[in-house]
Design a protein that fits this description.
Two copies of one chain form a homodimer.
Chain A lengths: L4 E7 L3 E8 L4 E8 L6 H19 L6 E8 L2 E2 L5 E4 L4 E4 L1 H9 L3 E5 H12 L8 E6 L3 E7 L2 E2 L31 H4 L1 H13 L6 H4 L10 H9 L3 H25 L3 E5 L1 H21 L3 H5 L3 E3 L6 H11 L1
Parallel strand pairs in A: 1-4, 4-8, 9-12, 12-13
Antiparallel strand pairs in A: 1-2, 2-3, 5-6, 6-7, 9-10, 10-11
Helix pairs in contact in A: 1-2, 3-11, 5-8, 7-9, 8-9
Amino acid sequence: MGSARLAGIDIGGTKLYALVTDAEGKILGRAKKKTRPKKGYAAVLERVEACFAEALEAAGVAREAITAVGVGAPSAITPAGVAVDAPNLGWKDAPLARDLEALLGRPVRLDNDCNCGALGELSFGAGRGHASLVGLFVGTGLGGGIVHEGKVLRGHTGLAAELGHLVIRHGGRTCGCGREGCLEAYASKTAMGRRLRRAVEKEGRPTLLTELGVEDLGSLRSGLLARAYREGDALTREVVDEAADYLGAGVASVITALGPEIVVLGGGVMEALGEELLPLVRASARRSTFPDAAFAATPIELGTLGDDAVALGAVALART
Amino acid sequence: MGSARLAGIDIGGTKLYALVTDAEGKILGRAKKKTRPKKGYAAVLERVEACFAEALEAAGVAREAITAVGVGAPSAITPAGVAVDAPNLGWKDAPLARDLEALLGRPVRLDNDCNCGALGELSFGAGRGHASLVGLFVGTGLGGGIVHEGKVLRGHTGLAAELGHLVIRHGGRTCGCGREGCLEAYASKTAMGRRLRRAVEKEGRPTLLTELGVEDLGSLRSGLLARAYREGDALTREVVDEAADYLGAGVASVITALGPEIVVLGGGVMEALGEELLPLVRASARRSTFPDAAFAATPIELGTLGDDAVALGAVALART
């Protein structure tokens, strides 16, 4: 059998990542596949199994040596392991933990992807050595994860830490979720894209992004956003800086309410533009955190795990 | 010596309350005094001691029978028991726990008043039987307390749960704390008073409140606000209903982020107008909580302990 091994799987809307690690989280093998959610639930699960098998092979580890498989998915997850609603995958009330256990043949521990991301950064990344952490992950949407006293805070329904839907401007912009004034409606890439599109289409403002060949500002890649930002495109700067300002207000609320030991910012937008945005987010958070001493006592840092954050958090979950 | 007895003291900006209870929190005696903060720190502490002595006498309990005294104070409290900043009392960095232990002659457990209020409602009030609770206390200011897995959540600095300073409208109204867009700047009695005053003084709007003899709308008593509201005064309704709407958005953020088993609303304004405001707060919270299932799973209730909430929470703290 050999010594205990763990696995972590990140089921994303676009990609699947699988990692096999030793008991300390050292990566022994990895694999990556496209998710292809349009092929349906069963087909995605088959691809998860294939990705897991590939990572096992890359690691030279037998399936039986895996103590448990942690899995992160972009959905609210019930304590019973049901993926309640995963819009990017088209799943509703999918009994994911049970189905994956049957398919992978190993015990499965399932959680929301951002909960895993936060746990990953705490266990192996920017939050190492801390007992509490709040993670904010800025990409297409804006996800959150809270670790309190070493454990993921899921609330009594398992639905907590949806920090993209904190009310940051009551009565303000409509969010993708249909509510008004959510943080995600101001600080996600989708929010920025909408803002850019309106400025170009309705106000006729110029932007380097159209010169860079972006056709749909609403589904802009983070890399192009970063390029236009770095080249000093005025519209991009205006829109991105405003988003960073709102993100800072969200960070402030989180520190004011929870007093975590550290706040970690991750996700595609922060990976692409983190160095530029971090000072803006900190400045905004400083203005809005109560009291000043709480801001002073709380580092706000970029995540260090990049694309591995969720899968490594899943490994940490498997270890518990 | 007799069996173990506990005490709880609420040091408010205006009044002091002391309770003596049995080990289960049954009240055996009580006392109440004016705080008179203008007389200074040492004089207030003497009044606390006198109030405690009076409660002991009313209960017929010897001081030595008190296992521990819980104390709630309107200040951020450090883990070492220092009251960092109590604007209503005029205290800064006061070593309150140490000084009270010396004065009362019993072990003291000190916490922020709203943390105590939340713990009180969980232990003996509306949240009885629950393991997690968020309390929002609407009075002159707007205070918050969070109990998670049976314990007060204080954050790593001891400064957490300052829910009156959640950013609810980024870039919005200036709060008493100097920041912009805090919940307290929209949903506290002070915020309502400012709004009323502006409408009367700047817009010349009529209100029953002036007929009721209110001279300073900025320091209105809750009872008069409730009377004008119940008598259908249009301006009062408009202002109070808007505050309730913002409070509901704050409740939504708290449920979305933390997923507590119950949210409890207390404080002077809720005691005076709770039955009227609760449906408005719930309706607003329903619109803004993510996801819908989290709202559906979370009762939002009025506190049941009234003026005893903080002192009874202090008793619960003394018991731990």
